[in-house]
Write a structure and sequence with these properties.
Length: 380
């Protein structure tokens, strides 16, 4: 692959996969060659990387595979957005892909410091509705990249006409536009409307409650959207949706910050935020996977095409820790993490943790250390 002989490289890699299917190098060679194909088949490469990571989540080098998948998805999303805009006049009359649904970024009305929830809520809605077998959900990054290419003002992004245009460009059958009025100490009101490619707007779903109920409200919104979409959820689908995602609001807030950092290409900050989400909720699989990919991305970018070097470099990485300075979202995390309902006591469990020095964490006294521990560990 390094010398451009991808025809031979793929044959050998596939033969190797027959002998060692859990070896990351096989997927990395095949996906890398798909990226090098004429025109760049980043969609196939992303599928190759994702399939391997899902099959072998504990494989050595899986973090590098996840990082390659994220980078391939970003490249593909950018290419698709540019091509769609260049051919907008010819793409418009084309029929949408059946059962395709696009969740647009949720408009957050309220404190500007809560804006990362725009990405977090959109990602959770997408992940939950992806549990419905009859729907095909578009990737959040694909939608966000197109909106960035359109260079629209924030107010224009919540316009149903914009949703219809995005749907036509992405050939999505229906779009979901969400609005969340969120205040930390007051009521939370969430709503979502369904927009078709022809601009027809259908009232969606609503969920009202308090800030501490945010995760429950998101599930209510999903069930309401399913009803408005004419979908009768099975008991199995409903249970999968309820099990999906974080069980801790602190983890969700940190995860949302991670998505925001990821979208702006700040992988170090993204890995730190996703790491905080994992510490708050160790069962939050999406945060674990995103942390792996974000932590490995710089090493992958530094050694393009040299898959052996990448695997070795990623294996030596240590997970970045969360910055000591906290913003409003992080301060909210401290407050919410004391909620007893979010805690599931466990006995007999063992875990391996790193022991960084206080100085390396920007902590100057033992009082601050105690504060950090209160964020990470919660009393039963």
């Amino acid at each position: 692959m390094a010398v451009g002989r991808c025809d031979t490289a793929v044959v050998v890699a596939k033969a190797g996969q027959m002998l060692a299917p859990g070896e990351a190098l096989g997927a990395m060679v095949i996906g890398g060659c798909q990226e090098k194909d004429e025109g760049g088949r980043y969609d196939l490469a992303y599928a190759t990387y994702t399939d391997f990571a899902n099959r072998y989540p504990q494989a050595r080098g899986v973090a590098a595979v996840r990082a390659l998948g994220q980078l391939a998805l970003r490249t593909q999303a950018t290419q698709t957005a540019k091509l769609a805009l260049a051919r907008e006049s010819t793409l418009t009359p084309q029929a949408p892909e059946p059962s395709t649904l696009a969740i647009l970024p949720v408009t957050i009305a309220g404190d500007s410091s809560l804006q990362p929830l725009s990405r977090g809520l959109a990602e959770m809605l997408t992940s939950d509705l992806a549990m419905v077998r009859s729907l095909r959900l578009l990737e959040r990054m694909q939608i966000g990249t197109l909106l960035d290419e359109l260079k629209l003002a924030q107010s224009a992004r919540s316009d149903p006409a914009t949703a219809a245009r995005v749907g036509r460009l992405l050939r999505a059958e229906r779009m979901v536009q969400g609005v969340a009025a969120i205040t930390e100490n007051g009521p939370v009101r969430m709503s979502a409307t369904v927009v078709r490619g022809d601009g027809t707007v259908r009232s969606g779903a609503q969920a009202n409650g308090t800030f501490k109920q945010l995760l429950e409200l998101e599930k209510q919104l999903v069930f309401g959207l399913a009803t408005q979409l004419g979908i009768q959820l099975t008991d199995a689908e409903r249970q999968r949706i309820l099990r999906q995602g974080p069980k801790n609001l602190a983890a969700f807030l940190a995860y949302s910050r991670g998505l925001e950092a990821l979208d702006r290409g700040d992988y170090r900050a993204a890995a730190a935020a996703f790491g905080a989400a994992v510490r708050a909720d160790p069962s939050f699989q999406a945060a674990q996977q995103q942390q792996q990919a974000a932590a490995a991305a710089p090493a992958v970018q530094a050694s393009p095409g040299d898959v052996v070097t990448v695997v070795e470099a990623v294996a030596q990485l240590t997970t970045p820790t969360e910055p000591a300075s906290v913003g409003v979202l992080q301060q909210t995390t401290v407050d919410v993490s004391q909620i007893g309902a979010d805690i599931t006591p466990q006995t007999g469990a063992q875990s391996t943790v790193s022991h960084p020095t206080p100085e390396s964490q920007g902590i100057s006294n033992i009082g601050q250390v105690t504060g950090v521990l209160r964020i990470i560990f919660k009393r039963p």
